[in-house]
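Q: My labmate handed me this sequence with no annotations at all. I'd like to see what the chain might look like in three dimensions before we decide whether it's worth expressing. Could you predict it?
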Amino acid sequence: MPKADVAHASCGKVLVLHREGGVEWRVVRLDAKKKWPGLGDKPRIADLEGWGL
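A: Here is what I predict for the chain of 53 residues:
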């Protein structure tokens, strides 16, 4: 799984998705306690509001 807490120099925070089992897309999130990436919920259009899309 790629880094979950990544930022682009000019664009800012990056939305990282993972295709679980080759079927379903999931949002990759950084677990603040463990400092390790994990799978979050399925991406929703409403969640993309702050991403400039």
